[in-house]
Structures are given as structure tokens and as C-alpha cells.
Input
Amino acid sequence: MAARDYDLFVIGGGSGGVRSARLAASMGKRVAIAEEFRFGGTCVIRGCVPKKLYVYASQFPEHFEDAEGFGWSVGERSFSWERLVAAKEKEITRLEGLYRKGLENAGAEIIESRAELVDANTVRLLADRRTVTAERIVIAVGGRPQAPAGLVGAEHCISSNEAFDLKRLPASILISGGGYIAVEFANIFHGLGVETTLIYRGAEILSRFDGDMRRGLMAAMQAKGIRIILGDVITAVTVDGEGRRVAETGQNGSLVVDQVMLATGRVPNTAGLGLEAAGVTVDARGAIRVDAFSRTSAPGVYALGDVTDRVQLTPVAIHEAMCFIETEYKHNPTSPDHDLIATAVFSQPEIGTVGLSEEEAVKTHAAVDVFRAEFRPMKATLSGRTEKTIQKIVVDAETRKVLGVHILGHEAGEMAQLLGIALKAGVTKDDFDRTMAVHPTAAEELVTMYQPSYRIRDGVRQ
Ligand code: NDP
Output
């Protein structure tokens, strides 16, 4: 058999692709990685990183208002969208450079081209029309926003891809969806002074989250002035004579806004990738089917991250890449662990969560105790802001094992990260009870809720 050009060829320069290429190259493997857009992937270029920067930007008006209660007088203020976009661009360009440097230092070859599979060991590079061969191929091409099927006028709408780089900040925006992206962007745009409406088909936003988090966040968003339309969808979008978007809805008439943003989920980026030719099978959504070790149906071809539609989160893609390296190059078969993934919604207030929601827990556990606290955060006493923190611990009453913890409030994401360690270690409610509080913090409430707020037995609340 003729020697292949590479030991490993990675398609896609996002979180999962870069990590697998860098680690394999640092072990002395001959590695190439192809990316058609920018290194860093969705997370760095048009996802988590710029999103968090814009969240910070959108929080300042509340900080300025809160300052009054602490004795400060804040003078005239103004906001420049152009300066924010430019500052964001500078930072993600810096991060992109670090990704490239990491790959180069490890000895991986960087290829700026779209890459498509010819067969299970051959890749075609569209930039210079050459083909290369590799012993193993990793597909880590991520996902892309998807408009609702058949939405008339979807081309007049933006997605999160465009939202970061709009030429000017819209005066008003209608956001469709009730998931992470819709909720986070509704808060960002509202904070930046945009008249914001969110339209969601269900009865409560964030369908997979604990009910207290969903209701608490929705109330907080509405209290800030974000309009939330429930049980409805956009049916068509047109453009009027002044360039404004006219969105027809099922039950709420037509809404005229500067921008319509669709945040109705993301689909794997597999179209036109040559998967069929390589013998790689996909599911109905176009996600690459993989086994417990990220192996596809084609021997030697692996898939990681959002393209497999397991859990669409950056740290998960990175973890899957590290498991791939352990399994394939370190003779240590390791399958990714998708249990108890802590996560945050960077809404305002934030949601931090790990483990089962109350609704999920009662489906699988006969006896559930819920410990719940709702209180005004300390900062709000002087700022005068009407806001609530909600903390909730869901416990298996039979074993005392903590099944889930859910927090709505400042820094909830930071708390979720630490709670993730505790739950992963199998923490019980008794461990919480014997932990000394850190005072004065909001998190201390988590270790001082000694009595259940209510009990649920066989699905019935007592
Ligand atoms: P989500 O799956 O979170 O939400 C999609 C939303 O769109 C849901 O509310 C869904 O409704 C709604 N929807 C789906 N199809 C339609 C339709 N045809 N018409 C109307 N509404 C529809 O996806 P996002 O796009 O918000 O985010 C994609 C992924 O990215 C997330 O799953 C998450 O894993 C990741 N992400 C993580 C972030 C974080 O960690 N902070 C931030 C941003 C994204 P329903 O609930 O009824 O199905």
C-alpha cells in the first residue's frame, strides 16, 4: 500500500478540529487541517466569544443606573455600535491568530480551503483543486443556523451569523425562537437600546430548562421591557418601501421592524461534503452518525462536535477531540462522557444549570425533594433594582443524591461550573449541608437550604 500524504487530515478549524489536529501533530503525527472560513470556528468567530463580549457591552446601561444608588452620578453617556464591532473584531482576530500559532507550533499544516471527501482516505481541496490522502480523517465542520422550513421571505432575515457585524444597530428587532441564541440576543439588543420583541412557538421560553428558570427569566425579561409573544410564529417576511421588515405572524398580525432575526436552531454542515462517496452515513437532520468512539460508518473516518448533533457545545467538541486522540493515538479507548454537562444561558439575569430539571427528575425518580430559594440579591438593595435570584436543588429523596442544581441570577454561569464538579463527583444533599457558607455571597444560599421547600412523591407535589 502506498504511503498516505498524512497520518491525519482534519476538515474544519473550529473547537473540535483544531484540538484534534494540534494534539495529533504535537505527538509527531503528520497532520493537515483545512478551514474554508476563519480558524476558531463558530465559538470564536461568531458564537460564544463575541456573544459574551456583546453581553458585557449591553450590561452597561444597568450598571450606570445602579451606580446612582451607591452614591455615584454618572454623566452623559453614548454608545457606538461601530466601536463595539471594531473592538470585537480585533479580539477575535487575536484569538484566531492564537489558534493558528498553536497549530503551527505543534507542526500541523494549515490549509485555507474548503475540503470535501472523495473517498474514506482521500480529500479534495477546492482552493487549488488537488487531492490528498490520509490514514485517518476527522470531520469537524460544525453546524449552521437553520430557518424554519418553508418560511417565505427568510432571505430578508438575519441569523446569529450576521447579527455581530450589522452595519448599524437597528432601532427595532424581532427575534424568532425561544432557545439559547434567541434569548441571549434578545437581552443583548435590548440592553443596547434596541426595541426588542421575541416570538416563540411554545408556551414558555427555553423548553428544555427547569420550569422555575424558564418562568423566572421570562418575567425578568418582560420587566425590563422586552416584549415576548408566545404560542405564535412568523409566517412570512417582506420588505416595505422604507426597507423595514414586515413580519406576518400567525395570531398577532404584522409587525414592522428594522431587522428580523431567526434563531430557530442549527443544523449540521454536511451538505456537499462528499459523505456518500466516502461511505459516511447521516441521520434525517444531516448529522453524521457516530459510535461511542466518534467513529463514522466509514473505517478511518471520524466526526466530532456539532456535525454529529450530540450536544452542541464547544467544551463538548473539545472533549470529543481529546477522547479521539486517546483512543486512536494513545491506545487508551475513551468514549466521550456526555452526562451531567453544566451549561449557562448568558441572558440577563443568567441561568446556570447542571443535571436534571425538576420536570425530568420526577419522571425517573419516585421520591424527589426540591430545595428552592428566591431572594433579592444584595446589590439590588441599594441600586433599587427589582430583580430576583432563584436557586433550586433537586434531590433524590431516597439516596439524598443531588440530581440537579439550577440558578437564575448574577454569575450563575460561574456557579454552574463549580457545581458541575460536585455533581460529577456524586455529591449528596448532606455534603451541601456540611459545607460552610461563604458570606456574604448569593451562592451561600445553596448550602443553607436545610429543609425541602416541597416534596414530590410519584409525580404528586406534597
Ligand atoms: P435551540 O435548540 O436552543 O433553540 C431553537 C429554538 O427555535 C427553540 O426555541 C425551538 O422551539 C425553536 N424552533 C425550532 N424550529 C422552529 C420552527 N420551525 N419555527 C419556530 N421556532 C422553531 O437552538 P439555538 O439556535 O438557540 O442554539 C443552537 C445550539 O447552540 C444550542 O442548542 C446550544 O447547544 C448552542 N448554544 C449554546 C450557548 C451557550 O452555551 N450559552 C449559546 C448559544 C448557542 P422548541 O423549543 O419548541 O423546539
